[in-house]
Amino acid sequence: MTDDLSVETLDGFVGVLTMRRPPDNFFDLELVRALADAAEQLAAGDTRAIVIGSEGKHFCAGADFTRGGASADAARLLYVEAVRLLEIPIPIVAAVQGSAVGGGLGLACAADFRVAAPSSRFHCNFAQLGFHPGFGLSETLPLIVGQQRALHIMCAAQRLTGDESLAIGLVDVLASDGEVVPAAIEFARTFAAMGPLAVRSIKQTLRGGLPDRVRTAVAREAAEQQRLRDTDDFRIGLAASFERERPTFIGR
Predict the structure, then answer these.
(1) pLDDT tens-digit profile of 117-149?
(2) Is there a contact between 180 and 97 (Cβ–Cβ < 8 Å)?
(3) Which of 83, 108, 141, 163 is most exposed, with the fewest beta carbons within 10 Å of its own?
(4) How far, CA to CA in Å, does 179 sit from each of 78, 98, 100, 109, 193?
(5) What is the domain count for the chain?
(6) Where are the beta strands (DSSP E) in the chain?
(7) Which CATH number do you get for residue 234?
């Protein structure tokens, strides 16, 4: 277990996993693997629901491209670990304070439910980088908000507020600013209070086929990311992101 993840159990039935890489909580293979390991261990015990949250200003800004997060091998291995989160048999609630950007949005969508605040931001920024979405978003986001809306969000690199995300079903509960994690814990308790065998059974019925579909999706995502990584557009988009400028793409 990495020091960048804390694990806590509340009331004996709600597990809380907290990413500790403030302020942006960039992830890498080690952190995503630790999340999956911890979630599996909790689900193997008495835990009936899990909350994934974070310390600092933002829920998660995705992979840190300045530290090799964009490499093909890193992405491929990371996606293998990401699918493990979808195989957890108990409900997972993402507590999204601040922003969920890029792969951070993918992590939020890998959870079964999302709690956010009006000030929260959900940003599918891949097209703005000249890149293809990853972390299974091409499967999970359409499942949550619908195919047409997901296509718009991805192709336009939309940035959505907490209120907008609630309106389209991306967010399940809107909490007050500063109260996202407590609200997510209370939301998780509603599942923990139900019959645990029934909840597991229902999740398996509704989402049991999702991991295999996401495996297919991430294979496609990884291949497209590898292809686009070598384009001028990706270099332009990445440089513009670092400089906080609007990219001017050239289509090659």
Answers:
(1) 999 999 999 999 999 999 999 999 999 999 999
(2) yes
(3) 163
(4) 30, 11, 16, 20, 21
(5) 1
(6) 5-10, 14-19, 49-54, 92-96, 99-101, 113-116, 121-123, 159-161, 173-174
(7) 3.90.226.10
